[in-house]
Specification:
OB fold (Dihydrolipoamide Acetyltransferase, E2P), alpha+beta, binds 8-methoxy-2,3-dimethylquinoxalin-5-ol, Helix Hairpins, 5-stranded mixed sheet, D-amino Acid Aminotransferase, Chain A, domain 1, 26 strands, 5-stranded antiparallel sheet
Length: about 675
Amino acid sequence: MSKAILPLEIQQLSDQLDLHNYRYHVLDEPSIPDAHYDKLFKQLQAWEQANPELVSPQSPTQRVGAKPINGFSQITHEMPMLSLDNVFNGEELTDYSQRIKERLGLSDEQSIEYACEPKLDGIAVSLLYENGLLIRGATRGDGTTGEDITHNVRTIASIPLKLRGSGYPDKLEVRGEIYMLKAGFVAMNEQAAKIGDKLFVNPRNAAAGSIRQLDPKITARRPLEMCCYSVGVVEGGEIPDEHIATLELLQSWGLKINPHLSKAQNIGDKISYIDTMQKLRDQLPYEIDGLVFKVNNYHLQQRLGFISRAPRWAIAYKFPAQEALTEVENVEFQVGRTGAITPVARLKPVFVGGVTVSNATLHNMDEIQRLGLQVKDTVVVHRAGDVIPKVVRVILEQRPADAYAVEFPTQCPVCQAEIVRIAGEVVSRCSGGLACAAQRKEALVHYVSKKALDIDGLGEKLIDTLVSKEMVAKFDDIYHLSKSNLMRLERMGDKSVDKLLQTIERTKQTSLARFIYALGIREVGEATARNLAREFGYLDRVMTASVERLEQVSDVGPIVAKHLASFFSQAQNLAVIDSLRTAGVNWPEAEPIAEAELSLANKVYVLTGTLEQMGRAEAKAHLQELGAKVAGSVSKKTDCVVAGTAAGSKLTKAQDLGVEILTEVEFIAFLKAHNVVLDL
Ligand code: I6G
């Protein structure tokens, strides 16, 4: 086939679009706004419409083929696509590493370098490039025979239609995983729900369904990506003799690789990679079901060979399953701090996400209806990270004959006050207010919590006892607890009582932000409380501010402003604040600092990697508190990058650009030096 000669400016336009596509989808470092890309794209499209005979199949406009296909044809993999053996814990991984050393005849002192990679929860595929052009995409199938999905892989923007640069082999097979981003999956299901379409169960199923479409226009609308993890057939060219170097070369040729690649020299490195990735797992924009450790050197891989259908030189470290089936034994109703009534499913205990779960939140009555859940149903429970377990699906086929519907109570299960649901709200609430022991207890638990007054030693159990014995009803009662009264309680000895009383005394000295947060005003979280404290400087000014003035505070919308104004207009709340001040609770007050005078005003920070001691949201809030802007990507405009563990391409880029880099330890020292109150 002779190659059409394009006018120079059109070739340049096409190359420019390829470059921006690569920067956006592969490197995650866009350099032009989306609108500008769209403008260039339309220019190329217009020219191609006028010159249809000169349109290249590799043009960035040609990702979606014209017609749907009739069916999938089978392909045979020239080199079989293997699966991986699994291990499930550190001990099994240690045994595996030891076996590999023995097989290679290495002593205990000698080490083998491993490549460490996340294992994406998607669909394994093979891409075939000849002379740099994508000629075929195929599913793994049974490892020997797969299905031709070329028409669909062409629609995925992170898969290049032609390789970039030079030096690639004449024939190159690249393997990897096609997956759907979590956010794209949620948005897609929301859209499907709106129009009454069937919902996908999880991002993996959605990805599988999307690449098995006959019409590539449908696939093109799905938020799919592909990450490469190995090469298959290589002919007419060379690749490096190490796995990670090969992946980096693939990236330079335009293929996406995972940014969380790492090297491990020993089992300790592997275990710390597991720790890091487990902490990062929930923040990743895609799902991973484990990690993969591969002997990095190809010569050693060759010496190790294969056992049945799996390479000996690689092992998958599987995370505990995040979903499991169990039975709903009952549905009970809990009363929260603001009176919200939350249905909770009591479950037959089940091991999921690494722990035994026996309760799962059902959020509200609408959620029960959405799930179509009845007591005694078999359900799928999902538990990810430290998130509260959730019922995600009912298995209707397994509904027993004696299953029965959940009835929402009309009276509070704790104080018997009427339950009300305000029109337009999904939440039903107990109308008992602080007369309800459950609300009183939850309000107190919140008041003493770490981010509020931080009264360590006054835990939920002790508050339960104090409330039920009517020793504490309001916040200020905490400051009137006496040693003799506390000593009468079970398991409260001389020492623990002294310690608790000292903590209560010490924590009277607090900050305005903590105090506002501790009051437990509806929808006033930590960040909002911090913003209020920063903008007003004095509690009395917050208390007397109008709804309009409150709405000017960052993070405060009309609803939060109304909650604030309403809270401070109620006599009983003012009385509690007064009593707390009288009891000695105090905080420094000062004129607010204008935004431009904040120490990090006009500075741009980027957070990357895992911060071990504080969450990203917290780190971001602290930086904003000091006036900094927190951006998502590193550029010449970045003033500083805070790099946690397993930081990837953002850190490398910051190093290349000579941007200041702070480790987490340095960042914490920096915040302390700027008088930021930390909850570590
Ligand atoms: O199924 C897999 C997922 C991820 C893999 C894999 C992988 O590397 C990150 N690597 C190989 C070599 C194989 N399967 C066979």
